[in-house]
Amino acid sequence: MRLELKQVRIADVVIVAVSGRVDHTSAEPFRAQLWPHLASCAAGGDRLVLDLAGLEYISSAGLRVLMLASRDVKAREGRLLVCGLQSIVREIFEISRFNVVFNVLPDRGSALAELRVAAATGA
């Protein structure tokens, strides 16, 4: 399955659904497709949810892209959440400790609820 990113906007939340595989051959196209979505993810701007329910596999090259995305968003005081990890991707996140780096939620609804709570409390 080829890599695909689809965007949905719900108010000030941008959901980017990632499907396919992110490995050494698709990591750079993944970065190129993801980066425009990060541009508005800053304090007072959009919040970003990466819905990885359709992601079948991610390699260390793909994890590097996610780490750089996280740093980029944090530098601008934005919010980036990850949700919907399939079991193999969840295992990769746990082994690499990315489940500590990212706020990982079970599904899109949980991610949206988390952002609503954060917005209500001013976090």
Tags for this model:
5 helices; alpha/beta; single chain; Transcription Regulator spoIIAA
Which fold does the CATH topology refer to?
A: Transcription Regulator spoIIAA
Give the rounded overall mean pLDDT: 92
Low-pLDDT ranges = none
CATH architecture classification: 2-Layer Sandwich
Number of domains: 1
Give me the count of strands.
5
What oligomeric state best describes the polypeptide chains here? single chain
The dominant shape is globular
CATH superfamily: STAS domain
Structural class: alpha/beta
Detailed description of the structure:
The longest helix has 16 residues, at 60-75. The relative contact order is 0.17. The chain has helices at 27-38, 60-75, 87-96, 98-101, 108-121; strands at residues 4-10, 13-22, 47-58, 80-83, 103-105. It is an alpha/beta fold. It has a single domain, classed as STAS domain (Transcription Regulator spoIIAA), CATH 3.30.750. The chain has a five-stranded mixed sheet with strand order 1-2-3-4-5, with helices on both faces. Helix 1 (27-38) packs parallel to helix 2 (60-75).
Per-chain topology:
Blueprint: E1 4-10, E2 13-22, H1 27-38, E3 47-58, H2 60-75, E4 80-83, H3 87-96, H4 98-101, E5 103-105, H5 108-121
Parallel strand pairs: 2-3, 3-4, 4-5
Antiparallel strand pairs: 1-2
